[in-house]
Please model this.
Amino acid sequence: MPRKKKKRQKIKVLTRVFRKQKKKKILTTMPLRWMFVGLVSMIGSLVIIGILFLLLRPKFVYDLYDDRASRIDAYFATYHMPLEGYGEVFVTSADQCGMDWRLLPAIAVRESSGGKHMQYNNPFGWGGAQIPFETMEESIMNVGSHLCGNEKNTAKYYASSTVQQKLYRYNGTVIASYPTEVKWIMRQF
Model:
């Protein structure tokens, strides 16, 4: 029996030592685990905040990087076109319905060489180039409104159509290559 008693005592001692070591290990690793969890939580929060900021960013932040008007004006300036300086009007007209901002300037380039060969302040050839406008701003906003589908008479043609469909209905029925030509010009902006 003394051997069994010694074995039992030895097992008890080893068990106590193991428990003490385990407690020490738990005490030293638990703070590290919590630090890791906290770090992961902070990084996750920052990522979520960043994504929300990109999706819901205020308009003024977008305006800081909005170079669309200057790109339009630079294109017209490069080729000495009379529509230079109207870039902001083109962008405003396109933004009223989410239309591609390059569509109207590209149509103006295709129809009148950017205003070089226009009649009656109508660089788009709208209405067979026979519809007069008081100002260039009026013509840009008016034709933009039609292409957005905001005008009752033309809404059925342009309201819920793609750029390809808009171009086809604008002049593609007469000139089959018209949509392709205008889309090529759009890529130049």
Summary: The radius of gyration is 35 Å. DSSP finds nine helices and no strands in the chain.
